[in-house]
Predict the structure.
Amino acid sequence: MTALVKKPKFAALMQSTINMRVDTTAIDQEIENYEKELRRFYSLKSKLLEEIDGLEGLLLDAKAKKRTIEAERITGDNIYKILCNYDKMYAVMDEAERRRLMESRIDEIQIYEERQPNGQWLKSIKFKQQMEKRLG
């Protein structure tokens, strides 16, 4: 084998084979096409992820609005039930509970200095903001 390597023709053949330029034009083009296509898909992926994020945000907002609407309906239902049964509820309260109930709902009461000819003492009653929102 060493004799073969020492022959000038063999050495020249091996050197030309080693130095031979491999034509990779076709595979280079294929790689470039795949890279271009991959960049395009990454761009699409990014846009789709943005759209998904937006839709998820809109969905969460809609669900929150639904919960708010349902909570307000429940609150409205509860207020209606309380109003329907107010006299029964008020009748079983002691004086301190009645006072706390009134203080929690009434912001300001204005009264006349003297009873009016029609028997009226109250000028106006201003309810606290939370109560006005619920009744309005």
